[in-house]
Specification:
Helix content is 36%, strand content 21%. The chain has ten helices and 14 strands. Strands 3-4-2-1-7-8-9-10 form an eight-stranded mixed beta sheet, with helices on both faces. The protein has a four-stranded parallel beta sheet with strand order 13-12-11-14. A two-stranded antiparallel sheet has the order 5-6. α7 links the parallel β9 and β10.
Length: 304
């Protein structure tokens, strides 16, 4: 799916949540994107929010982003095409998530909603406490709200049980919910108890003008498997620790290219040392979004 088509489809769904279909094309919306995950942090959620905001801006709508402060980056900043970002002075306490306060963000959120004349609040990622608080308060104030779930979560561990209870409470009164895959939709419906007809599937987009294959960049003597992901348990980093040594044992001409950072990077480096795979497993660390394409074209197989 091409980049603009998928993002425009998302923009249309967001617009439908705040007006009747026949009025959506006429009204210019003022959308507030809310999540703990945004630039300068790197990741899929951060890129999704940025590019969706740019597509909405190109359609003539106004978009404002609310996230927490990142180091010295606090206050109001402006990005490409006039995208306004509020870096709220709240410090993260776990995996870039801010400490849940329920009402701690309400004064700032209310100020932003009124100052910017917001008509629609769009929260991103079930793991974001800032997102949940914004959706709760916005709905209480009578705003239209949309939620996008980007990931899959379990049902058995303590963290997932707690998060699923929060999700049920927060999404009980949202107008629309978006998931990035049919599997994600099934997961979200089961976790939140939402009616399936209120959950829409819009796959993540690919900018085909940037991500083009380049066979000349691949090695002809070996098979290169590329992994680009946050190195955390939820992304399957622990499976890599078990899989890579076995694949390298079975196939002599296979090499791994691992991009990304996270708490599980230490385990991958220990595995590489233990099995003496320094020549066959290359650790790239955090890869900026602008460099992802140049890494992907080096591989024959992308392992997600």
């Amino acid at each position: 799916m091409e980049f603009h088509g998928a993002m425009d489809f998302t923009a249309t769904t967001v617009a439908r949540a705040s007006t009747m279909p026949e009025m959506a094309a006429q009204q210019q919306h003022r959308v507030l994107m809310v999540s703990d995950f945004f630039y300068p942090n790197f990741g899929g959620v951060e890129n999704h929010i940025y590019y969706l905001s740019q597509c909405l801006l190109s359609c003539g709508h106004k978009v404002v982003v609310m996230t927490h402060a990142y180091g010295k980056r606090s206050g109001v900043r402006h990005m490409t095409n006039g995208l306004k970002v509020y870096y709220v002075p709240r410090l993260p306490f776990f995996m870039q998530n801010t400490l849940p306060t329920i009402y701690g963000t309400f004064p700032i959120l209310r100020n932003i909603l009124i100052r910017e004349g917001i008509t629609l609040v769009h929260g991103h990622q079930a793991f974001s406490t800032l997102c949940h608080e914004a959706l709760l308060h916005a709905r209480t104030m009578g705003y239209k709200v949309v939620f996008t779930d980007h990931s899959l979560y379990g049902f058995a561990d303590l963290g997932s049980i707690h998060m699923n209870k929060v999700l049920q409470f927060t999404l009980a009164d949202v107008h629309q919910t978006i998931c990035v895959s049919h599997t994600s939709k099934e997961n979200t419906v089961l976790r939140s108890g939402l009616p399936p007809q209120k959950v829409f599937v819009i796959p993540n987009a690919v900018d085909t003008s940037v991500f083009k294959p380049d066979p000349s960049s691949r090695s002809s003597d070996e098979v290169v498997i590329v992994v680009i992901s946050r190195l955390v348990y939820r992304k399957g980093a622990d499976l890599l620790v078990e899989v890579i040594p076995e694949v390298c044992r079975l196939f002599e001409k296979v090499r791994f290219l691992v991009g990304g950072d996270g708490p599980k990077r230490v385990r991958l480096e220990e595995m590489r040392e233990k099995h003496s795979l320094q020549e066959r497993v290359e650790m790239l660390g955090a890869v900026p979004h602008s460099h992802v394409q140049s890494v992907l074209v080096r591989g024959h197989i992308f392992l997600n």
